[in-house]
Amino acid sequence: MLPTLNGRLQTRIFMLVVFGSLVTLVLTPVLPGDPDHGTTFIILATVLVLGIVWELIYHGIQQFRWEKDWPTMFGLITILNEGALVWLLVDAGVVPGIDEGSVPFWAFFIDFSVIWFVIWVWTNGPMRVPLIRWRFFGGRIV
Amino acid sequence: MSEPAAASVVPTTDPSTYLPSQPISGDLTDQMLQTDFWTDELVAAAGIPIVDIPFVTIGGGIGSFVTVDYLRIAGVPTSQMRVLSTLDFPWQTYEYLTRVSQVPRPERIRSDSASRPDNIWGFPSYAVSEAIQKKTLAPLWSVFAEPIFTDYYTPKAGHVFENLERESNRIAYNEMLVKGLVRIVRRRYGGGYFTILTPPEGASATKRVAFRSQYVHIAVGYPGLKFLPELQRYRTENNDYRHIVNAYEAHEHVYERLVQTPSTVLVRGGGIVASRILQRLMDDREKYGAQTNIVHLFRTYINGTNDGYGNEGDARPGGGRTRTFMRRRGENGWAYQGFNYPKSVWGGQLKAQVRKLDGEQRAELYKRMGGTNTPWRKSWQRQMNQGRREGWYNVVVGTVEDMQPSGERILNQVRTAQGVVPLEVDFVIDCTGLEADIAEHRLLKDLLDHGGASRNPVGRLNVDRNFELIGTASGSGTLYASGATTLGGYFPGVDTFLGLQVAAQEIYGDLAKRGFCKRIGPVRSTLQWWKWLAGSAP
Are B348 and A133 a contacting pair at CB < 8 A? Predict the structure, then answer.
C-alpha cells in the first residue's frame, strides 16, 4: 500500500465500519461463550478508536522508509500489536461497558482475526475495483 | 557534429516510406506552416482531406493504449476515437527496447505487480494471475514478503505482452488504429485541432490527411535516446559500430564474440540497464563458459546511504547531509531502489506532495528523489560478489577523456581521482541512457513553436494536474500529453506503466467533466471489471 496519513485514516474507518460491522453482525451469534452484539460492537468501536492512534504511529514509522510505502506484510502482522492491546484493555475491564473478564478469549480471538483478515485481503486488491481513484490518492475515499 | 536525430538508438520509421517521391496533391503549404491557427478553408484549399473524429491520440504506444482503454471503459465507442501511429501494436517499441537491453519475454521487467496497463484496476495483480496460471504460490509469497524478505515481485515481459494483446482485442484497438506519421498538430480557428497525418505510401490518395478533432492526446514516448557524445564521435570517426554499442540497440554479436573469444568489456552506467547487461555477461560466463573480463565504469560511485544529490557527504543546496527521512541504501557504486522512483510517487505521500509543488521547489524534490539507481536483487549480488572474488569484475570510477583505436581494441583514457588511467578493452557497452531534448522531436518542437506549449521546471512539456498541455487550449478543445515527454510535472513517475495509467485516469476524469465520456463510478467500475474478467467487450 502507498498510504498518506489522510488516506490511512479514511481507509481504516471505512473498512472497520463496513467490513468490521458486517463480520461482527454475522459472527457474534456463533462465537464461543455467547457474547451479545452490544459487547462485540463495543470491542469493534475500541479497535476503531485505538486504530486511529496506531495509524499515527505507523505513519511516523513510514517516514523512515525511502519509498514511503507500507509493505503488504506490515498490514497483516500489525494484527499482533493491535490485537494484544485491545485484548488487554477488554480483559482488564478498562473499556467502558465491558466488565473485567467477561469476554471469553476465543470469542475475541476469532472475531478479531476474521475481521482483520477480511479487511487485509480486501485492502490489497478488491477495493481497487469499485473505487478507481482510491489507490492513486493514498487510500483516500473522499 | 552529427545530426542529433542520427544519434538516436531507438528505431524510427524511415521517413522515405512516408513521403512519396512523386509529388501528389494535398500537401502542407508554406502559409499553413507559418500560421498558428488554421481555418477549415486553409486546410481545404491545400487539397488535404479532412476527417472528423472527436478524439485522436498520437503515438500508439502503451501511453495511447492505456488512455483509449480508460475511455472505452468509460463508454466511448471506437468510432469516436483514432490512434495515429507508425506502430503495428502498442507494445512494439517497448518490446524492442526491453529485448535488446536484455529483458526478453521470459525475463522479468522492473515494474510493480499491480501496474497492469491491460487492467485499469490493477486487480488481479500480475502476481495473482501468475499464481493462478502457473498453479504456484511462489508469486503470492513474493508480493507478501516484498521488499523485506524477498526482492520486489516483478512480472515477466512475456506475461505483460500476452495480456496487453488480450485487452487490445477486447477493446477493439485495431478498429481505432490508423497507420501514419504525425508531425504537426495545430489549433483550429473556431476551436479544436487539426492533426496532420502522413499515411504510408499508397494508403491514401493524398500526401496528407487532416483529422479535425476537439480533443488530442500526445503520447510519443522518449524524444530519443542518445549515445554519450564521445562514444558517438568515436563511432563516426573510426566507422566502428561493432565494438561500441548502446544497450538499447541490437548488439547480440557482442555476446556471441564473448562466448568464442576471451575479451574485456567496458560497461558504462550505474542504472537498471547496466544491471541487466552485467547479468547477461555473467550469465554467459556461467552457462557457456565465456571468459569475459568486465570493467564497470561509474561516473558517480555510491558507497552508502544516498539521495539524488549523491553520497551522504556530497554537496547539496542548503548544505547538510542526506536527510534521515529521505535517504536510500547504496553500496559498491550502486544506489538501490525497487523501481525507477520511490514507490509512493504512484499513489502515496510523494505523489500527494509533488502535486502541491511548483517551480524551484518541485524541481528540488525531483532532484532529491532522483538519481541513477537500480534494484537490489539477490541473484545480481551473488554474481557480482563472485566476480569480485575471482577478479573478473572490476570497478573504475571516473570519466572518459579520450578514446583511440588500438589494433582491434579500444584504448580509453579514464580520468579518475588518481589521475588519468589508460584502459584497453575489446568492447564498450553504453548503458547511460542519455535522453534527447524534447525539441528534437518534430511534433513536440512544432507544439513549442506554434502550438502554445511550454516547458516545465525540468525542461519537458508543461502539463497541468489533469495532463492538459498548458497554453494549448483551443476554444472548447483540449490537448493532453502523457508519458516521458511530461516528466517534471505535478506527477512524477510519468514514464512508467502505472504513471501512464495515473495520467489516463486524470485525462478520462477531465473528459468526463466535459461530457465526452461517462463517469466510472463504483457501479460502472464493478460491472466493467466483470466484463474485463470475462473477456467481453466493454
Answer: no
